[in-house]
Amino acid sequence: MTDVIAAERAAPKPPLSASVVYDGAADGGVIASARAFAVDFLAAAPAVRRAPVPDDRVELAKLVVSELVTNAVRHAAGPCRLLLELRGDVLEISVFDRVAAAPIPRGHDPRRIGQHGVEIVVAVCESVTVEPAPAGKRVRARLSLLPEGAGEAGGGPGGDRTAR
Fold it and tell me: Which of 12, 32, 101, 145 has the greatest number of beta carbons closer than 10 A?
């Protein structure tokens, strides 16, 4: 595992970013490590955001990171990269893997056990996109860090929640 946290005050976007590569895809500790990485990243957010991230938003960020990294570990061979970027009151969570095919959200089925990851991410994030990357794809989820109900100008909860 390699990791870097960089605060770039001169650059307008993103003022805080962090990246980690997990190459032991079969290791069960990857998901816990990714969640801890997200918590550590959000703990550094007040340095550039002027306010701590609300606990409910930290929990949602951990959930989204878990689901996206789990998908990459389960469905793509080789390493995956987790990139976190703070853009104002929005956390961008990106996971890069080596499979070009986009994850397919399955229809809501409360009887199905498991395989709800993409459905959960789409439900809690402002947007979820899938973009081609040089050696696979990037799944990017945008999560508001504003307290529940505060919304975000033009893109709060209820915004674009479709996977592309």
Answer: 145
